[in-house]
Design brief:
The chain is an alpha/beta fold and about 350 residues long. It is built from twelve helices and 14 strands. The strands form two sheets. It has an eight-stranded mixed beta sheet with strand order 3-2-1-4-7-6-8-5, with helices on both faces. The chain is elongated, with a radius of gyration of 22 Å.
Length: about 350
């Protein structure tokens, strides 16, 4: 490569022979030409690496590596360690980036030096020949696409992962300051975003779609135990505790909205992180007036502008969250200052 790349596109892959050509074509067709592609083979057994090899023969910007470890975290960290640019652009082997993606994200980071990470909106896709449609992921994309500004990402970070992993570009210096991807019983991308947010990294999202995000039955986040609901709850509790310590709550006590099955598991992880709960709120008349783990359960009707508790909302399926938020706003409660969703 004659010139220093302005972006290092890091692409881990494993058994992606059916989708790699689509992915690679979208990279080669970028408006910005000063990139390098670091494709890291994570022990493929279907000949995927041969596709990369073929592309690299005619394009010196493409580098094929064999991971030194096992799994996506090792592949990502190894690829990043070999990168030449100060900007890392993430990409997955089954997705397609739009031609202006790299240029748009590089331009934004250059113009906004205080921003550490820039993501984009994504378009939910499934394979044309497949009858599969993941309604849950489609709804998640709708939610994630609505979370755009840095303050919104900060306030909604404990609901779901606010960023689509293959849509992000970030400064490599963040890894040196705040740590690389980590292995563990948690989703590696979400843990990284929560860790960086806890360190004060500013994250934003361009208000345009720059990636087709393909969903399949076999996607990693549907298969691995570190992407389970319980795994998300554990890592949320850990970083929520850190977030809470930074809030100026003074002598305000903590209350929790919700004691259902999923909420109870989240309560367990909160207690393990030394969160002290003063009382619970419920709408179920069968629970109101009772106790949960020795703590009283009150009606949500008792939430008034006068009460001074900080409310952790542990319930709220899609649709219900909007109703709960509207209810609390009517009670003069402000998200982030008086309540937060942890669902």
């Amino acid at each position: 490569m004659a010139t220093q790349p302005v972006a290092s596109i890091v692409l881990p892959f494993r058994n992606s022979i059916r989708t790699l050509d689509r992915c690679l074509q979208s990279i080669v067709n970028q408006d910005c030409k000063e990139w390098e592609l670091i494709a890291v083979n994570d022990h493929s057994s279907d000949g995927s690496e041969k596709i990369i090899e073929q592309y690299s023969k005619s394009d010196t910007r493409i580098l094929l590596l064999q991971t030194k470890g096992e799994g996506i975290v090792d592949a990502l960290n190894y690829g990043i360690s070999k990168s030449k640019s100060e900007i890392i652009v993430r990409m997955d082997s089954d997705d397609r980036m739009y031609p202006h993606r790299v240029h748009a994200q590089i331009k934004y980071l250059e113009a906004n030096p205080k921003t550490g990470l820039i993501a984009s909106l994504v378009c939910y896709k499934t394979e044309k020949k497949s009858n599969f449609f993941g309604k849950g992921y489609s709804l998640y994309v709708d939610w994630s696409n609505a979370i755009q500004r840095s303050d919104e990402i900060e306030l909604h970070q404990f609901e779901e992962c606010p960023l689509a992993h293959p849509s992000v570009a970030f400064r490599k210096s963040l890894l040196a300051m705040n740590g690389m991807y980590r292995k563990g019983d948690f989703p590696e991308d979400y843990e990284l975003w929560l860790r960086w947010l806890s360190k004060g990294v500013k994250m934003e999202k361009l208000k345009i779609c720059l990636l087709d995000w393909y969903d399949t039955e076999n996607r990693l986040s549907r298969q691995g135990t570190n992407y389970s609901q319980e795994a998300f709850q554990k890592v949320k509790a850990k970083y929520f505790c850190l977030w809470l310590k930074k809030q100026k709550l003074g002598k305000r006590k903590l209350a929790v909205w919700g004691t259902g099955r999923i909420a109870r598991r989240q309560i367990k992880y909160l207690l393990e992180n030394k969160i002290q709960i003063h009382r619970y709120f419920e709408i179920d008349p069968r629970k109101i007036g009772n106790e949960f783990d020795g703590v009283p359960i009150s009606s949500t009707d008792e939430i008034t502008p006068a009460i001074n508790e900080f409310i952790i909302v542990l319930t709220g399926k899609r649709g219900a969250k909007e109703q709960i938020s509207e209810f609390l706003l009517e009670k003069k409660k402000e998200i982030g200052a008086d309540f937060i969703f942890l669902v």
